[in-house]
């Protein structure tokens, strides 16, 4: 049984929070570079170049790439032969967020109660999903999820007879409603199947995959390519200024569902697609 100490988790998470906000991942930067080459709209190209410049300044000056430093969302894969000592996993993740946001001078974006809306003052509590897996590793995926894109995300309980056409219609309608408000170019996370709550989780989970990585299921990978191509024909473009780069990637995760159900969830991620991963 491997032991992982509470303080190790805190230290890793603290630095993940800072790195996520200061350093846009290589996958996203590569997608921007390739979009600049392919974008036909001069305004779209200009916006993409500005996003690259913005990310470079953030990295060089160790400042957040966006004023919205996001909600810390974790997907934790906890090996069943891994034992966390010195405190609880949830406390360690929240303490890491507390430290990272304070030491990195990152904006606190969490209110304690959705009605009274008092800022908690340390960017906690985080949103934490834990999956129990084989082995003794503790893998922590973290994203700093922006509010603008999250606000434009949607879920619909379709009928099985709506089929693939109904799924596509819902996805494209969501992107059109979002327009510039989700800060495109987007990474579009799509959950298909499961039930009401797991469908939303599938969409969120898909966003933890690196940009450019296709689903390992060939049929689902084909859907990702197809959705991406059609989304990029909507003309919304970078920051909604027009162009062919509305999305830099589309991710799809699917799950088994009830015979009477076809839930679909679309979780949007903005151009500040900040995700980090550590294996302890
Ligand atoms: S949605 Fe993303 S890019 Fe837009 S303000 Fe929030 S973090 Fe920044």
UniProtKB/TrEMBL annotation:
<protein>
    <submittedName>
        <fullName>Fumarate hydratase</fullName>
        <ecNumber>4.2.1.2</ecNumber>
    </submittedName>
</protein>
<keyword id="KW-0479">Metal-binding</keyword>
<comment type="similarity">
    <text>Belongs to the class-I fumarase family.</text>
</comment>
<feature type="domain" description="Fe-S hydro-lyase tartrate dehydratase alpha-type catalytic">
    <location>
        <begin position="12"/>
        <end position="278"/>
    </location>
</feature>
<dbReference type="GO" id="GO:0004333">
    <property type="term" value="F:fumarate hydratase activity"/>
</dbReference>
<keyword id="KW-0004">4Fe-4S</keyword>
<keyword id="KW-0408">Iron</keyword>
<keyword id="KW-0411">Iron-sulfur</keyword>
<dbReference type="InterPro" id="IPR051208">
    <property type="entry name" value="Class-I_Fumarase/Tartrate_DH"/>
</dbReference>
<dbReference type="Pfam" id="PF05681">
    <property type="entry name" value="Fumerase"/>
</dbReference>
<keyword id="KW-0456">Lyase</keyword>
<dbReference type="InterPro" id="IPR004646">
    <property type="entry name" value="Fe-S_hydro-lyase_TtdA-typ_cat"/>
</dbReference>
């Amino acid at each position: 049984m491997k032991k992982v100490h509470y303080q190790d988790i805190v230290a890793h998470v603290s630095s993940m929070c800072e790195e996520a906000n200061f350093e846009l991942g290589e996958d996203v930067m590569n997608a921007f570079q390739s979009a600049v080459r392919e974008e036909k709209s001069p305004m779209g190209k200009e916006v993409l170049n500005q996003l690259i410049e913005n990310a470079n300044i953030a990295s060089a000056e160790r400042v957040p790439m966006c004023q919205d430093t996001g909600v810390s969302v974790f997907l934790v894969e906890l090996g069943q032969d891994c034992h966390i000592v010195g405190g609880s996993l949830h406390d360690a993740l929240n303490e890491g967020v507390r430290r990272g946001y304070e030491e990195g001078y990152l904006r606190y974006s969490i209110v304690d109660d959705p009605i009274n809306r008092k800022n908690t003052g340390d960017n906690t509590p985080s949103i934490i999903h834990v999956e129990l897996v084989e082995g003794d590793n503790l893998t922590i995926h973290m994203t700093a999820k922006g509010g603008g894109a999250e606000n434009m995300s949607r879920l619909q309980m379709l009928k099985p007879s709506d089929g693939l056409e109904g799924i596509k219609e819902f996805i494209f309608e969501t992107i059109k409603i979002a327009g510039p408000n989700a800060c495109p170019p987007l990474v579009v996370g799509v959950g298909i199947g499961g039930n009401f709550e797991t469908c939303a989780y599938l969409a969120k989970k898909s966003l933890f995959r690196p940009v450019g990585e296709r689903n390992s299921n060939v049929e689902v990978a084909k859907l990702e390519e197809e959705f991406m191509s059609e989304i990029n024909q909507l003309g919304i473009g970078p920051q909604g200024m027009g162009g062919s780069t509305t999305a830099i990637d589309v991710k799809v995760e699917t799950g088994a569902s009830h015979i009477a159900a076809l839930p679909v969830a679309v979780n949007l991620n903005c151009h500040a697609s900040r995700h980090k991963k550590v294996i302890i």
